[in-house]
Amino acid sequence: MKEIVIKADRLTKKFGDFIATNAISFEVEKGEIFGFLGANGAGKTTAMRMLCGLSIPSSGEASVAGFDVYKQTEKIKQSIGYMSQKFSLYEDLTVKENIRFYAGIYGMSRAAIKEKMAALLDQLQLTAEENALVKSLPLGWKQKLAFSVAILHEPKIVFLDEPTGGVDPVTRREFWNLIYEAAAKGITVFVTTHYMDEAEYCNRVSIMVDGKIEALDTPTNLKATFNAASMDEVFLQLARGAKRTAD
Amino acid sequence: MNAIEVNHIIKNYGVKKNIVKALEDVSFDVREGELFGIIGPDGAGKTSLFRILTTLLLADQGTATVYGFDVVKNYKEIRKRVGYMPGKFSLYQDLTVEENLEFFAAIFNTSIKANYDLIKDIYVQIEPFKERRAGKLSGGMKQKLALCCALIHKPIVLFLDEPTTGVDAVSRKEFWEMLKDLKKQGISILVSTPYMDEAAMCDRVALMQSGKIMTVDTPENIIKEFKKPIWAVKSDEMYRLLTDLKKYDNTESCNSFGEFHHLVLKNEEGNKESVLHYLQEHQHKNIRIQQTQPNIEDCFMELMQE
Question: What pLDDT sits at residue B93?
């Protein structure tokens, strides 16, 4: 039987009169790569913050890794990993220090960190750079390291907020290989992106417009439904109708 | 006269052991009235180049001119004549939309009224919010305001450093439409972007990576330079398909491109059938193989390997 790791039911967040996220409902399965798309201001960030236990919903229900988004936010935080393009690693710490710091924050024991450290450095071919400051690494390495750190504690779900922005095309694809590997290990991947070719790499994609989920399906089905040749066209058809432009 | 000429520019940061080579011998020209794109990822050196050309940073070696003015000797002349929109939002957050625009007009000894024609089409979109503080605007509106402020003194060259980064697909398309309109008014435009698909919107582009320009040409010619056939391949299990195709002994390169993988073969003999046979041996289902056209990203990746 399939295991549901994220379940949202009419999840809503209001700021005064403004309904940032308007009664969104969806389910995400274990090991699924779930693309969370929408124009700027559609309400993606607000929805993600609620799912990460950082913002209490105004109404509706949701559970993440089996924990309630109202009452069990600390449990949620322990069960997820998070990475964004804007904030991922501490530039003034070394590679090793970043790994130790994040692993500690995610509650891993010293013994477990020690055990995982060597394997991770080896896997990323960063052993020679372990004492280098993160700011001296090329962006592509940083992003791969940031992702690996976000899943070091083997979370059930990893949230990736525009993880590949500004990254070169080769590194962008290598990054997606890491995503596929994580998903194959059973980690659920919840990802936002502005690259429409990346929407094709997701098992299913949701597209938010003005606070609501206007479409949710596999890329193949979405293209068929909207009679579009690419996900880019599907996105444009839906997002062109948007009335909101706020961030 | 060329709008911009860049000759053998070198720029390094840091000292001794920790030298970062931001620009390594960069040369190119932008013609008058051209919409010229610098396409490259973060760390390619785009911003260093823009700062040198807008006279905000000195190169270590090499020369550059903007409409014949030297970026070092004639920096004041350049500053009067160019508009610059930095990658980071740099307007006054606590001034309103209108105040920001008035401020930039005043600095250049002009008024909103004097050059209103140039910004009209863009400004009308943010005019309903003219009383709002710039810091409270959405990303798309900030971008439009910044463009208006960069245009208000009627520059002859416009420098736009990653104007579409972090902006959604719809707003990106709209922004490029605005640039095309500005080009029609005779303004030369140098614009940088990490989005490879935006290359198609430019007259000519420079593909840039790690401080070096890999090629300069029209997007059409860059694509034509990609000589080998590309096969678009898909099956039911795309990730396994990718790893299997990478292992195939006749594979030169294989990369994901949305719905398909793009496969380039070392040897084209018996191409399609051999690939199909190999994939069937590996139990792939619903295999589709068809020839396809390269795009700028294919070309960029090929150039990166050289």
Answer: 95
User: Does any CB of chain B come closer than 8 Å to the CB of residue A116?
Assistant: no
Predicted pLDDT of residue A87: 64
pLDDT tens, residue by residue, B128-164: 999 999 999 877 888 899 999 999 999 999 999 999 9
Instruction: Using CA coordinates, name the residue in chain B closest to A177.
Output: B239
Q: What span, in angstroms and rounded, lies between the C-alpha atoms of A102 and A116? A: 12
Q: Are strands B188-193 and B157-161 parallel, antiparallel or unpaired?
A: parallel
State residue A136's pLDDT score: 85
Identify all chain A residues contacting B242, using CB atoms and an 8 Å cutoff: 177
Domain boundaries, chain A: 4-89+155-239
> Which residues of chain B carry a pLDDT beneath 50?
none
**B65-99 CB burial, b ≥16 within 10 A, e <16:** bbbebebeebbeebeebbbbbbbeeebeeeebbbb
d(CA A178, CA A34): 15
Q: What is the pLDDT of residues A141-160, one digit of tens each?
A: 888 899 999 999 999 999 99
In chain B, the domains with their CATH numbers are: 2-224 (3.40.50.300), 230-305 (3.30.70)
Residue type, B274: S
With beta carbons less than 8 A apart as the criterion, state whether A61 and A11 touch: yes
Residues A89-136 pLDDT 10s? 999 999 999 999 999 998 899 999 999 999 999 988 888 899 999 988
Which candidate from A139, A171, A180 shows the least CB-CB separation from B239?
A180
The position carrying tokens 């208006």 is B148
In contact, A194 and A162? CB cutoff 8 Å: yes
Cβ–Cβ < 8 Å for A31, A183: yes
Better pLDDT: A237 or A138:
A237
Residue B267 structure tokens: 């040897």
Q: Tell whether B135 is within 8 A of chain A (Cβ).
A: no
CA distance B293 to chain A (A): 15
**Chain A environment of B138 (Cβ under 8 Å):** 40-41, 245-247
Pairwise CA distance, residues B25 & B64, whole Å: 12
Dmax over CA atoms of chain B, in Å, equals 73
What is the amino acid identity at position B152?
I
Neighbours of B250 (CB within 10 A): 16
pLDDT of residue B270: 64
Q: Which DSSP category does A247 fall into?
A: -
Q: What is the pLDDT of residue B165?
A: 86
Q: What is the CATH number of domain A4-89+155-239?
A: 3.40.50.300
Q: Which of A56, A70, A67, A52 is nearest to A161 (CA)?
A: A52
Instruction: Give the span between the Cα atoms of B219 and B207, in whole angstroms.
Output: 10
Q: Tokens 């290989």 belong to which residue?
A: A177
- Locate A34 and state its tokens: 């779930």
- Say whether residue A163 is in contact with chain B using an 8 A CB cutoff: no
